[in-house]
Amino acid sequence: MTKLDAQVPEGSIDQKWTNHKNNIRLVNPANKRSIDVIVVGTGLAGASAAASLAEMGYNVKSYCFQDSPRRAHSIAAQGGINAAKNYQNDGDSNYRLFHDTVKGGDYRSRESNVYRLAEVSSSIIDQCVAQGVPFAREYGGLLDNRSFGGVQVSRTFYAKGQTGQQLLLGAYSAMSRQISKGKITMYNRHEMLDLVIVDGKARGIIARNLITGKIEKHSAHAVVICSGGYGNVFYLSTNAMGSNATAAWKTHKKGAYFANPCYTQIHPTCIPVSGDHQSKLTLMSESLRNDGRIWVPKKKEDAEAVRNKTLKPVDIKAEDRDYYLERRYPSFGNLVPRDVASRAAKERCDAGYGVNKTGEAVFLDFASAIERYGKTEAHIHGLENPSKEEIIKYGKQVVESKYGNLFEMYQKITDDNPYETPMMIYPAVHYTMGGVWVDYNLMTTVPGCFAMGEANFSDHGANRLGASALMQGLADGYFVLPYTIGDYLSEDIRTGPISTESPEFDAAEKEVKATLEKLLSIQGTKTVDHFHRKLGLIMWNKCGMSRNAVDLRSAMAEIRAIREDFWKDVRVPGQLNEYNSELEKAGRVADFLELGELMCKDALDREESCGGHFREEYQTEEGEALRDDENFMYVSAYEYTGDPGTEILHKENLEYEAIEVKTRSYK
């Protein structure tokens, strides 16, 4: 069993990144003009990396399967982006952000990477403000902050409930400038289907033009994977329906180790499943937990009456409500991390206190916030003894200014007015902390292949804190990779253009075509979605919010059976050399059917509970996660063997020098 070397620099935690930058090899501006870099994905990580590398002088080729980089799933992020600027003067610092992130990840992240993330976080905000991102501001003109789960300070910068969209537009504007200068060549509606390795180095990709169906060869001196996470392995998730694992998985099959695949984040604040017809779930931003209070009825008969619609939630008295997060975790209350809040909601619903027709929902109530804000606003307007109606009016105005678009979205989907009645929410698959293994330079185990953002594993451990995804994506793209990739590319200044007319490119192209033609030739009786739904149901039930050994073993066997059936009985209509969305889906689901088994294998191997990985056999008497630091304080990194389910485990031991490892508590 190989022990991985993460190439972490020597020195104290607060000097590692500075020392590394001071000693890193560079590429001079003239040489950058002769070096090509492929960037796969145009979300925050990909867009910021492409713009930064092009600005530095590299020739960038950028790929997205959407019709525009602006369609990347980063646009769906709502609540905010973390940075340790301490604008609220509440005790925040780089170290506090570092500490909260490591603790939130249940001490399963690489210490050095997390500190670097905290260190560059403030620069991200400055960069985005300079781009014109319209962050919310306070009365005095400073950028406003709000609090998110897992912390006791306000460090989350936001643009109403559209933070991801605004940040992506900022990065896209930087990309557009480089596209107009000819430094970025944009390949919209192209999907990466394989990584090409020449002489042991990543030298290009095979991509399919999704409009014409043509298989294309593209070369570069380095390849950067920024293709997001793999949450859609569960079929129902908060991810866009097109989000997939294919680029990362093809990289894995060409030698890049895949790390911590079992670490899946369940978001506690989603609109509940409404029926079998659904193809995705809708996220309600975690920022709502900043002001909303989560509760269920104390009495089962009240919960049943709410489910039967014979009792309205607003008619349940305060003393008959169980604000269970505030009860169980008094120090953090509704702001506990996502994994803790999700499991607590599941526990209440499993116990019979759920409030929708399926019994799988809890309330998120803004009545207290509306009243609190209303009283303050009434006082500001000079009303000494405001009426209840005036308080409610002013309070609703404040809540609308903070969360109006989210409330509007909720009402359009559910036909309930959240200003008047509590929202109903339930946990759903959201983010994946696992991903392609990378070292401190963000390079995978394939030389010349890098991975950033949600596509890699490096910063979040077993659970990501809210508002940290945008932070990591932009940190990697704007402030980390532009330095570290130069260290690798400094060896390529005399290489010259990489030709696509080589046996390696021809073999990869032939393999891709053969796989696609096989999918088209099966002509079975079942649709791609049929297999995806079956896989998703197994993953949610047996490798979802909680797992156990019996279920995981049976899940692996069931997934193998589904995969065999898929390759015998899937029906993919249409042709290869044309627009064919079913063929796109088929390839992605084929990859999910391999990845799903690895997720279960990793969950079975990790005999502990930590963060989003909750093994039912390993919990405290109070139902909290029970870690095993002696045996499992490592990153699980898997090497592909050619046969799914038989991957070889490699370990990166985690060592903590700047932070004390403790049992995580939010009480």
UniProtKB/TrEMBL annotation:
Swiss-Prot/TrEMBL GO biological process terms: anaerobic respiration
Limits of the FAD-dependent oxidoreductase 2 FAD-binding domain: 36-470
Entry GO terms, CC: plasma membrane
Membrane topology value: Peripheral membrane protein
Keyword line: Cell membrane, Electron transport, FAD, Flavoprotein, Membrane, Oxidoreductase, Transport
Fumarate reductase/succinate dehydrogenase flavoprotein-like C-terminal domain segment(s): 532-666
UniProt main location, coarse: membrane
GO MF: electron transfer activity; flavin adenine dinucleotide binding; succinate dehydrogenase (quinone) activity
Subcellular location: Cell membrane
Keyword Coiled coil listed: no
Keyword Flavoprotein in record: yes
Cofactor(s) recorded in Swiss-Prot or TrEMBL: FAD
Active-site feature positions: 338
E.C. code: 1.3.5.1
Catalytic activity, as annotated: a quinone + succinate = fumarate + a quinol
Family: Belongs to the FAD-dependent oxidoreductase 2 family. FRD/SDH subfamily.
NCBIfam families: PRK07573.1 (NF005749), sdhA_Bsu (TIGR01811)
Name assigned to this protein: succinate dehydrogenase
Species for this entry: Cryomorpha ignava
